[in-house]
Amino acid sequence: MHIKIILSLVIVGSVALSCSGGSGGQPNASARRDGQAVDTASGPVAWQFFDVSGCGLNGPEAGYQTVAASSGTQVAFASLTPTSGQATCTIENRAATATVYDICVVLSSADGFVGTIATSQPYTTMMGVGLAFDSTGVPMLAYTGGPSAQFRCGASDMLLASVSGGVLGTPLTIAAGSQSSGMPPDQAANCTSAAAQNVCNLGDATGYWPAVALDSSSGKLAVAFRDLHFGFADTDFNSSDVEFARGDDYSIFTADVARGGGSYIRLGFSPTGKAAIVHYNEHLPAIWLDHETDQGWESKQLFVGTIREQIGFAVSRQGLHALAYFDAGETRQLLAYSESSDGSTWTATEDVDRDGVTGYYPSLAFDADDNPAIAYYRCNDYGVAQGCDVNKDGLYLARRSAGTWNIQKVSAVSGVNDGQYTALAFAGGKAVIAFQQTSYDSVTGASKAILRVAKEP
Asked: Looking at residue 57, what is its pLDDT?
């Protein structure tokens, strides 16, 4: 296990960034903005860094799509990454292939953090993974597994299994098709109208972008996932559902009906056991919330526009719902935040970090005092050329205290892309962040990506 102690830098004050014209989503020349308005964190803070063994090394295009879970002093991560392997299948008497993805579970050890590849599954595209501790402290993995669907090559069922010690237990199949036991009445027409043709109950490609969470009020786990129906036509993606199932029987309820949502799903619970599901609709770009209320399920559109990979979302022990995302608007390109005390009424969007093109891959969690914190990747200066700068990017952590966001630079190693695919948790009151670091070897002419963990002392 490779360990380093590095002092994190604290950004203080306000920086003015000039903007030049751009294309392909870069800020407009007329849209000038200040740098970070208030960065008041005290420091420096010494972070401990670990290179995670056991999850393999991959090229920079791979990406460790990672999620975090914690319970008391325990912390764990699950990472999904493509390999060079290909699986074959037969779809309507024709040969097809799907990329093999490794699901690596990362647990703490005496020397730091060790990863174990719990399972490998074939997917046509990256489709997410979920992780949570159950009421007894056992880590539980939500993932897409099982056989190919009728018209889609690769795993197509919603599975849940324990991963104690990184070893996959016998999986429970929660869903193998599109049938559900109910849906919100105000969305029923999306499924049952003559035009919809019962779309929400057709097909066998399901279990994508799974999330799992513990309802602490009942001690039961629940999952949320995307249902792609037949999983091959544009209409399948544009009318996908978001499904919800709570243990112990895991009866499936369609929380978001045939609207095309279900990417980057996050799941949380209020202190009284009300579920809240946040997800992104790529068909009609927007972030949606589907949540339980005393009157039944309610859907709300929280943001309209394009984002990048990942959504940060959590519900605090006090019931505060918190959302973080990268606003990819041409004149925005920054980390945005909103919150709600009940899931129904939300605050206006707040810009957490305006210093550069910042806020990629946000991961949100609450600290021991129920303050929201967001780990994210700062890519580059604002208004410059395309791409992220290896000498200006880095892993950052924003923590709110007394209404003020305090921003720390956690890791910014020169010459590498540092801080992609973040996953944040708090264990024993301390922040722990998994992230990807990508480097280029000029001698071999090859790039590689490794998974690292930063731990607050």
From this structure: 64
